[in-house]
Design brief:
With about 350 residues, this protein is mostly helical. It has two domains: about 35-140, Orthogonal Bundle (DNA polymerase, domain 1), CATH 1.10.150; about 165-360, Orthogonal Bundle (hpI Integrase, Chain A). The protein contains 16 helices and three strands. It has helices at about 1-15, 35-40, 50-65, 70-85, 100-110, 120-140, 165-175, 185-205, 210-215, 245-265, 290-305, 310-315, 315-330, 335-340, 345-350, 350-360; strands spanning about 220-225, 230, 240-245. The chain has a three-stranded antiparallel sheet with strand order 1-2-3. Strand 2 and strand 3 (about 240-245) form a beta hairpin. The longest helix is centred in the middle third of the chain and has 23 residues, at about 185-205.
Length: about 350
């Protein structure tokens, strides 16, 4: 019985669809699987054209400045799609049909979650669909014919942690907490880090930047006189200008002119500095600050706030971006304006915040 159960689970993982849709009155197509067949289903792409397509598609995503995690996910999804096509005896771009593409969506709905054993959630299915549609977008840009885009499955938006205005103000106030240091130099460095903390909140909450956008920010991207932040490396390699309020600009320039210079000057003899001087966020060693370091600083601010509700939310840098978008919508800003502010290429991405607003406020 145990062997049969294992075979059944393997069969669920590797559903193979009929080559043509069944017609009314036609007997259902039967598939016979032996244990040997299930064990030898390919896990690597065989078609030379598909191998090349996978490689150049990933290279294309890299040129568009997608994050490593996004590229990793897209690569996994596209590989699964191409393997599915090969199991359907399709090995060239020219022989891909709209029918088979639509059946891939059905395949995803029936496929077992490889980590947890249950079916895929709609959100995971939509990630796979998004990757396949992105592949079709690439084919079109290369002047090749591409199948019709897959439609997304309906999903309920996951509840997201959104900080209240009071909690945001608490984070800012926590950066002003004084510490008693006997060493003047240590006290000065602590103040510089506090200024960087306020700049971090101003960039990620006040300006709504993505995590990678803030990390890639250069000092020359702070357009003080114009009260703008120039985001050069946005998602999909799209640049944009983000307005900065007076208060946030004050925090940013305070760090830029004082705290950042102090961190640099204390480490000016460090040979690693040569490539980091233009980076906006730097660490106590005078080198480029990592996203992990900034996330750790946010965690510390949350702990020091002594707010149990805020601690329970466990906010991330991206939580700050979600929060400002929700607050702007709450205050009556048009969703199209928020789309431009966040740098979303599609209004559908921004509409997430209308769901959050309806559910939480």
């Amino acid at each position: 019985m145990k062997v049969i159960a294992q075979q059944y689970q393997a069969l669920q993982r590797f559903l193979i669809e009929p080559s043509q849709p069944s017609q009314k009155g036609q007997a259902a197509t039967l598939f016979y699987f032996s244990t040997e067949l299930i064990m030898t289903i390919p896990t690597e792409i065989i078609s030379p054209q598909f191998k090349q397509l996978e490689t150049i598609f990933i290279n294309w995503l890299q040129t568009l400045n997608y994050s490593e995690e996004t590229i990793k996910t897209r690569k996994r999804n596209v590989k699964e799609f191409l393997l599915y096509l090969e199991r359907c005896n399709i090995t060239t771009i020219e022989t891909i049909t709209d029918y088979k593409v639509k059946r891939f969506k059905r395949y995803l709905k029936r496929r077992e979650n490889k980590l947890y054993g249950s079916g895929l959630m709609n959100a995971s299915i939509n990630v796979g669909i998004s990757s396949v549609n992105k592949l079709f977008e690439y084919l079109q840009q290369m002047g090749k014919s591409a199948p019709e885009n897959l439609e997304y499955v309906e999903e309920r938006y996951k509840p997201r942690n959104i900080l209240t205005l009071y909690e945001i103000n608490q984070l800012y106030e926590t950066t002003h907490q004084t510490h008693h240091f006997a060493n003047v130099e240590t006290k000065a460095k602590q103040e510089a880090v506090s200024q960087r903390d306020r700049a971090m909140l101003s960039i990620y909450y006040g300006c709504g930047l993505r995590k990678s956008e803030g990390i890639n920010l250069k000092t020359s991207d702070i357009l003080t006189e114009r009260k703008l932040i120039h985001v050069r490396k946005g998602k999909g390699s799209k640049e944009r200008y983000v307005p900065v309020t007076e208060n946030n600009l004050k925090h940013i320039t305070e760090y830029l002119q004082n705290g950042r210079n102090l961190l640099l000057n204390q480490n000016e003899s460090d040979p690693v500095l040569s490539g980091a001087e233009a980076i906006f966020f730097i660490n106590q060693y005078g080198t480029a600050c990592s996203d992990q370091a900034l996330s750790a600083r946010l965690d510390r601010l949350v702990r020091n706030s002594n707010n149990s509700v805020l601690k329970a939310k466990k906010p991330s840098l991206h939580t700050l971006r979600h929060s400002i978008a929700t607050h702007l919508l709450q205050q009556g800003m048009e969703i199209e304006m928020i789309q431009k502010f966040l740098g979303h290429s599609s209004l559908e991405s921004t509409q997430l915040y209308t769901h959050i607003l309806n559910e939480q406020f």
